[in-house]
Amino acid sequence: xxxxxxxxxxxxxxxxxxxxxxxxxxxxxxxxxxxxxxxxxxxxxxxxxxxxxxxxxxxxxxxxxxxxxxxxxxxxxxxxxxxxxxxxxxxxxxxxxxxxxxxxxxxxxxxxxxxxxxxxxxxxxxxxxxxxxxxxxxxxxxxxxxxxxxxxxxxxxxxxxxxxxxxxxxxxxxxxxxxxxxxxxxxxxxxxxxxxxxxxxxxxxxxxxxxxxxxx
Length: 216
Fold this sequence. Notes:
The protein has helices spanning about 10-20, 30-45, 85-90, 140-150, 170-175, 205-210; strands spanning about 1-5, 50-60, 60-70, 75-80, 95-105, 115-120, 130-135, 135, 160-165, 185-190, 195, 200. It is α/β, with parallel strands linked by helices. It has one domain: Rossmann fold. The strands form three sheets. Strands 1, 4, 5, 6, 7, 8, 9 and 10 form an eight-stranded mixed β-sheet that branches.
């Protein structure tokens, strides 16, 4: 299943427009808050696809039957750019366990790069619903490696891959390399161009730098 939320007119599109805008990007706090709000919307949409059970809730005047989330959720995030979206999802899935993966591009002298995973921490994902977040899906290598590392902590019931902007090449790669069962893909937009240095065009730039400052 592939869902592209930016294909319909909604507040999601408004936030995505502001996130892409190079003038609005100068306000780091607004950029982070927009990523957080995007995360909240993704969480709400994903919540429609998970399992619920009916319980009785005692109100001051009687008893009401309500549906509550049955699934055990694990929110996984690729550091550091994914943190604002992670926070947004955690605002909604507030009882979720969490996982964090440090994955970054390690450049070689010839300009090529490898993905280096420096750190991972995660609760067990056995039988749980995993939501794995990375704002940008360029070559998809970070996401593929992070997914494989996370799967060492158990076999999830279902996995939701979430990215704000993906390249067409990245989408094709992730569909080739990840399982075809029990996995869903959620994107804000799919951009067609990927440069020789593997930057998405038009994209939005470096989400981590825009949120937290440039790396030295």
